[in-house]
Amino acid sequence: MFDTKINTNIDECLKHFQRTQGRAKIEQLTMILERDEIGSRLISEHSVLSGEDWRKRREKMQKQDDLKYVLEELTGDDLDKDTKEILEKRYALFRNVYEGLISEHLSEFNPKIQKEPNLNILISDIKSSVPVIVKKNNKVEWDRSIQDQIPQILAQIFAVWTLKNTQNYNNMRGIDSAQSYLLMPHVAQIISLFRIFGIGFTKHVKVFGFRIGWKHISDDLFNNLVEVGTGEGKSVILAIVACVFALLGMDVKCSCYSEYLSQRYKNDFASLFQALGIDERIEYGTFNRLCENFLNEQCNLRDKVRDMILQNKNSLDQTNTTVQTRPKVLLIDEVDVFLSEKFYGGLYTPSVLIRDPTIKNLLSTLWNNRYLPPLRSIKNTSAYIDCAQRFSN
């Protein structure tokens, strides 16, 4: 509550500063603040500053908005003339749908009486048109029909994202560069998303189960790794991928090494997730927390182990494993950190605290008799005998 009040006061001060000093001064202030971590945090948390920051980013990222340049610089598997042509055609489809939706909704939007455009029909169209993924034999059913819909689904989701973030555009409405204040995806982000969803890949033709030298365009969905440069909108890509999978009926886990970044990313896109009705299907968290949640999905392992010990059993009670769960997808931010020794391949060592009077008495006895010969003398104490009987299994 205290933080909210302070942030509200800061917002009001910044708006007053913008009205009285103009855009040029806001730009100067943003340049000063972005020099350190605290300033960067202020920029991300306050719309007046983030709007100016976004406009500057768009100016710097003009190359990323050049489709020809992006495709020429794109590297990776299965990239040839044919696959790049597919990416180009899919991007044209995306752009046509996206720009049409933005133009249509902004033309009907009246900022004097509306906080944001009315998106009810668009969101309803998204939900009704997106197919639901089926899981068979522990494998997700993904085919060409789903892949073909990806450009349109992305265009619709991005349209909702853009139209739910029009506050900076509203403030600048009427000036020539107002469009620069809209949150809009750039080409590199869209091409990255296409690749994540398996667009623009090839696979070998099989005859009677044997692979031959010919290849054809793949419609498969597979594990993928996409490299995006610093400042090129990685969090946006992550959130939009999460939206698509969640709309397709999957549970999405977005993992990051930093608790602060996880929370910030989640907050940045919370309004989008809520608008699409998928916020309960998308979970952001650190590697450790998501791992813990996954292991405890059907039961709380710590509680189960604690109960087993305190009830003097030698095995865990059986849990209900027939609970139906949705297909899951894991999205990893900063995968290089995940692959470090600290996480990937490291031991997961959860612990549980056991409280019992006999344990407390034994610990007190051990401390009071800490100078006795180690084990033989301790085993003869009543505290040890009581504890051994209490936990005989």
UniProtKB/TrEMBL annotation:
SUPFAM superfamilies hit by this protein: P-loop containing nucleoside triphosphate hydrolases (SSF52540)
SecA DEAD-like N-terminal domain ranges (all copies): 224-281
Gene Ontology cellular component terms for the protein in this record: membrane
GO MF annotation terms: ATP binding
A Pfam family of this chain: SecA_DEAD
GO biological-process terms attached to the record: protein import
InterPro entries: P-loop_NTPase, SecA_DEAD
Domain of life where this protein originates: Eukaryota
Protein name: SecA DEAD-like N-terminal domain-containing protein
Organism, scientific name: Adineta ricciae (Rotifer)
